Amino acid sequence: MDRGEYASPGFGLGLIQDETWAVRGRLSYEFSPAATLSYIAGIRGFSADDSNFVTLPVAYRSFTFMDEAETQSHELRLNGEFDNGIVYQVGAFYFNETQDRESGFFLPIGNNGTFLSYFGRDVESESTSVFGQIEVPLGDVLTAVGGIRYTDNERSAVYLNGSPFGAGPPDSYLFNAGPARKDFNQMAFLSTLNLGSQDDRVTWLAGLNYEPNPDTLLFAKVSTGFKGGGFDSVGTYEPETNIAYEIGGKFTFGNMGQFQLNTGAFYYDYSGLQVSVLLDTTVGGQTFNAGAATIWDQEADFVAELTPNTVFDLSVNYLSAEYDELFAQFNVFTVSGTGDDINGIGDLDPTTVAVESPNFAGNTAPFSPEWVIRAGLNHTFDLGNSGSLTAGVSTTFKSSYFTDFYNYSDGEQGS
């Protein structure tokens, strides 16, 4: 269906206003070519207007009454190059983020409407790591690269959940007084969750760079990746880890070096890949760990200097991203004597009900188009003493992809 034919939301257009500020800085002192000490820091703040809301057809409104976040990061690093060609860096990194959010999902039924859900989120995240990397020449054309990093993550939160669909009818004043900010201390059916997660991991990389001449570089490396676990309004989820294998080459050719070709391929072996989905507006977003996922890619970039002022570029990427194991859940409607109800299949107690979580193995990971092809042409016009003017044209093709792990047709974005 043409999006221009969509019915407009019954509550009119939404409103989003926010402010972001950031301060960043870097201070370096070079003791010698073999030792440079650097300090890199940044602080960022975000604040959304308390009247923000998003409308959804036909008449839903999602309100954000408070959304504030502040992050800061600090890195201290020592790096340099010795006379024998060894390049190194060692350092430490610290990150901290606080988030305060209050939101509600509103439906205009009855005299003034009702909140289907109402959430408060107070979250703090902290990450500390130390790292080191070294490049060692093995002769004139071969270089070995190695690195290691230790990361410690810790998160804590207080989740406040207010829903009218608790053990009894919704409070007529608290939930039917219209889309105004509520008082969590007085809200009916309030649940308070004190949540937390902590995990640490050592990751590493090892690789070889082969450079037989200044116009050719061949490389291969193996590295591990780590993303900390966490929690949502339903429960906790585990960290995700990845072993990545990469090979590739970079080539410059032509009489004047006017052609460049970069090729590469990678193979990612994920364990515990984190996938998110919104199953129920009265619960909020949920995150599941895929037991395993395999992602591999082949890519090539080509750049040609057709004339000193005209450059053509072309890139082609092929991606395969598939879940090997993902036990999650989906909503189904069941009819009972009391009317229609929604069940999250797979979330039932296996000791009392013989229902097994469906396995979405074989499905494609979301936002993973199989093909992405881009081409562009730029030309620079020399304007003499007035400078220059560059004009360009480009085109990009993406094959179809899914927006969630269910891979249903209504969640497919056309090419």
Automatic annotation (TrEMBL):
It is a multi-pass membrane protein. It comes from the Bacteria. Its main location: membrane. Keywords: Cell outer membrane, Ion transport, Iron, Iron transport, Membrane, Receptor, TonB box, Transmembrane, Transmembrane beta strand, Transport. Residues 24-407 form the TonB-dependent receptor-like beta-barrel domain. It is found in: Cell outer membrane. This is TonB-dependent receptor.
